[in-house]
Each structure stands twice: as C-alpha cells, then as structure tokens.
Amino acid sequence: MWLSIRLPQLPLEALQTESNQVSVEQAQAVIQENRILCVNQLASQQGIQVGQTITNAFALCETIQLYQRKLQQEQQLLKNVAILVYPISSSVIIEPEGIIILEVARSLKLYKGIDSLLNNVRERLDEESINYQLALADSPTAAEVLSFMPLAYSMQAISSEGQINSSKLERILSKLSVQSMLLEEKIIQQFQSVGFKNIGQLKQLPHSSFQKRFGKKALNYLLKLFNQQADPRDFFQPEETFYQSLEFNEVIHHRQGLLFPIKRLLKNLVNFLHLQQKNAQHLEWKLFDSSKSTLTFSVVFSNANISLNNYLELTQLNLENHQLKEPIEGIALTAEKLSPLDIKTQELFEQAGYFNSNSHFINKIRAKLGSNSCLQLAQVPAHLPEQASIVSVDALPISKDIENDYQPHQPTWLLETPKPIRSLHQQLVLNGKLTIISSPQKIANNWWDSSAARDYYIAEHENGSLYWIFFDQLKKLWFLQGVYG
Questions:
Q1: Which of 48, 88, 239, 277 is most deeply packed, by most CB within 10 A?
Q2: CA 267-270-275 angle, 5° bins
Q3: pLDDT tens digits, residue range 126-142?
Q4: What CA–CA distance (Å, rounded) separates 240 from 338?
Q5: Per-residue pLDDT averaged across 320-347, rounded?
Q6: What is residue 318's predicted lDDT score, i.e. its pLDDT?
C-alpha cells in the first residue's frame, strides 16, 4: 500500500521566508519562463490561472505580486516534509512534481489501522502550515495520479479491514480523464486526437496495439498505473549533516526581520536531529547581504539538549553582537559536528533542574561575551591520564575504543605533568608521609609515541588527604598523578 502526499502550493510556500503564512490579503503567483506556475487563493479568485502569460495576469489584477520560481527551496521543503514522515515509513520517495510517496503497508499494524496512520500523518503535516492532499493506492504511480483527487476518492477502494480492493481501485482509475496521467503533453494530445477520453478506454486496447500507437514509454506507464509491472523508485535517505539556506523575496534591513527565517531553519534542524537521534553543539550561521558579502557567526552550547527555544534564544543573543551593514538577501544554517543523543533515564526523585539551568546560563554568557569566555574541563581520547584532561570550550566525548583504559577510581583533578615523589627507606614522602591503601592498577600502552608501564595506587597522606600516585616501571620512580577532592 502506497500513500502519496502532494503539495499543490509548493512553489509558493517554498518562498514564504519572511512571514509564517501565505498572504491572504495580496494576490500572489509564482512564474516560470514568463508564465504563471502557481497562484494563491486571492489570485485565483481574480481569474488568474496556471499557464497564463504575465501580461494576462496583470490585465486581470494590476496589484498581483509575481515571484520567480526557486527550485532549490522547493526541493528543500520536500526534504523537510520527507523527514517529518520518515518515522512512519523508511520507504519514502520524493518526486520533483511536489509529491512524496510512502510505502505504508508495513506500518499499518504499528498504527493499528489506516485511519490512525492517516491521522498521524495529518498531525505531522499540520505542524508545517502547508497545503497537502493525500491518496492511497497499490502502486506509486496510481498514488501519484489519485493525489490530484480528494482523499475520499481513493478511500472508496479501501475495504473494511483496511486493505486495498484491487478491483475497486481499477474501476476508480478507469474513470479518470487521460489528462490525469503524468505523461508528456504530446502523448496526452495523441490520446485525445484519436478519441480516448478516460484511462479505462486506454486499458481496453491490446498491449501490442497500444505500444504501436503510443510508444513503449506510455505502455509501461499504463502497466505501472494498474500495478501490472514493477515500479522501482529511488528512496530518500536523510543526510548525515545539516545544511539549509533561504533566499528572501525582499531584502531584510534589521535583525528583528530575521527572526522568522531563523526560527524556520532551526525548526527544520530540530526535526532533523530528532530523526537522526543526534545532538548539535555547534551551529554556524551565514548572512548574505546585497553587497555580496557574508557575515558568519557561530553558536556554541555547553550542553547538548535538543531545544528549539534554546537554539533560538542563543542565536538571537549572538546576532546582537553583529551590525547589519547592508540589507540581507539570504541566510544559511550549518550543523556538521553531530554527536549521538545521550538518552538517560531519570530517577524518581532526581534533582537535575539546577544543573540544566546552569548549563543554559553558561550558553547565554558565551553568546554575550564570546565562545571563549567560559572554559571547562574536558576529556579527550588519550591513554595516559595527564593527556586525557584538557581545558576546553566544549566537553568532548570519549571514544568507545579506548574508554576502558580509564581507571574507574581516578580523580577528576589531574596534574598537567606528573610530580616526582621521594622514597626514603621504602617510605613515600610528599610534604609528609604517604601510605598506599589500594591494590595496583596497571597501564602499559602508548607504544606508538613513547612506551609507558605504570602501576597506579591510591595513597593516603598523614593529614588525611587522598592522592593518586603511580610507580613508573621504566624509570623506577614514583610520581603524583592527581588529587582527590
């Protein structure tokens, strides 16, 4: 079973970068090659239709706003919608005509029927404030064709058990006009020139006769339409990193005017991160102005929680540090350094709210004063303890390949360089006597740099303090590595 999602207003909605909805107070249309490609409701009420020339459009409505088509933003919007519905089915097809097709037969059990599945799809699409039409069929080609009709039309072929009745679907398709077929215009004209009005009439022709009259391409399309031939398609695969850009219809002169396009890109990022189960701790923004210059700034996060509000607030704070010298024509957002989402279960009486608040406070300080204004201890992939802790802007994840080399009892505070410890008559002395109170933990590694063979111990000072020390088997000397708090 295939579900198609057609975006009838795609060329126009892909241009809505400065406001959160299509204008209902102004007649608008998208043009391509000096002809009308897509119109909003008010333009349609003025008599402006798809295919008309620009001259005819102005004759009908002098105040109509015309925009050039932006294919790149259309494809970007289609990908955003594909990401929204990807959790429902991983078999997603994006067609250039503004149609997304999902294989949903394997999802029916999960959603407990077709009605529940359709409601879930609607909820996801309604979040994007876009126009859409749905259709169901037993082949991708049939789902495409039926998407130009109301959903109730294809639902006539759904049985009470939620399955497609092939014979009913065949009758529904047969009644459609030949103009419903997504074929080249010259082929449609050939059908009409010999008197064929609906698809059912074409289906009655023998295959050999049909191919001789209209060609193999038209025959293959007809067979796919009625699910009589395999219909292979390229499936959508979400990208590993995030990059999206918006080109404005009109230049923006002030920072406040950038709020909506920034929020729109961040919302797309959040959907992408949820799908990939990844975190983004570094965002890079680029503003393109009318003088062809680029203003670039970064947003850095000390924690890695996916939050649209936090992303938006910190982006605005960073933007306040920059002056817009020229009007802005476009904007781009990049998030490349992604890390796996760390999902932790909370305890029943966990008191983690203060820590989260402090992390957000650090983010706000960095946004105001710069990314280097707050530093923290971080761990890096290194086998020797003194090389594993650094002072950094961001905490770095430890590689799974070497995390077992870290000692479970090592202190947080480590010396940058191990300090020698005196040994007098088999007694360790460091501004007082040290007594070993643990069994040894061995580290023997780092052979590619310089060999290391160490025995680590916990030692108690005579004043009660605890130290982390080791005996270097190569140098035959004792050293202080760290101090416990």
A1: 48
A2: 130
A3: 988 889 999 999 999 99
A4: 9
A5: 79
A6: 86
Two structure tokens written together for 356: 């989260």
- The rounded distance, in Å, linking the Cα atoms of 262 and 428 is 61
Is the pLDDT reported for residue 80 higher than 90? yes
pLDDT at 322 over 80: yes
Classify residue 403 by its DSSP letter: G
In the DSSP assignment, the letter for residue 177 is B
* Secondary structure (3-state) at 176: coil
- Is 157:20 a contact under the CB 8 Å cutoff? no
E strand or H helix that includes residue 306: none
Burial of 163 (0-12, 13-18, 19+ CB in 10 A): middle
pLDDT at 478 over 90: yes
- Number of Cβ within 10 Å of residue 42's Cβ equals 19
More confident residue, 353 or 232: 232
The dihedral of CA 333, 339, 341, 344: what is its sign? negative
Report whether 43 contacts 4 (CB < 8 A): no
Residues 6+ apart with CB under 8 A from 111: 88, 117, 120
Alpha-carbon distances, residue 354 vs 60, 351, 373 (angstroms): 62, 7, 21
Q: What is the DSSP letter of 347?
A: P
Tokens 């009709």 correspond to what residue? 149
Helix axis angle, 207-214 to 216-225, nearest 10°? 130
Report, as an integer, the average pLDDT of 404-414. Answer: 64
Q: Which of 1, 8, 2, 3 has the alpha carbon at shortest distance from 30?
A: 8
d(CA 28, CA 48): 10
For residue 290, give Cα distances in angstroms to 15, 124, 165, 293, 327: 18, 36, 57, 7, 6
3-state secondary structure of 198: strand
Region of residue 112 (left: phi > 0; alpha: psi -120 to 50; beta: else): left
Q: Is the dihedral of CA 250, 254, 260, 264 positive or negative?
A: positive
DSSP 312: H
What digits encode the pLDDT tens for the residues 256-314? 889 999 999 999 999 999 998 888 888 999 999 988 899 999 888 766 678 888 889 88
8-12 mean pLDDT: 92
User: Could you tell me which of 220, 177, 223, 218 has the C-alpha nearest to residue 197?
Assistant: 177
- Asked if residues 280 and 337 have their Cβ atoms less than 8 Å apart, the reply is yes
Q: Which amino acid is at 281?
A: Q
What pLDDT is stored for residue 323 in this prediction? 85
Enter the tokens of residue 142.
């049939």
Query: What contacts 24+ positions apart, CB below 8 Å, involve 283-286?
Result: 283/311, 283/315, 283/333, 283/334, 283/335, 284/333, 284/334, 284/335, 284/336, 285/315, 285/318, 285/319, 285/331, 285/332, 285/333, 286/245, 286/331, 286/332, 286/333, 286/334
CB neighbour list of residue 450: distance below 8 Å, 6 or more residues apart:
none
What distance in Å separates the CA atoms of residue 74 and residue 96, rounded to the nearest whole number? 9
Instruction: Check pLDDT > 70 for residue 357.
Output: no
pLDDT for 421 equals: 93
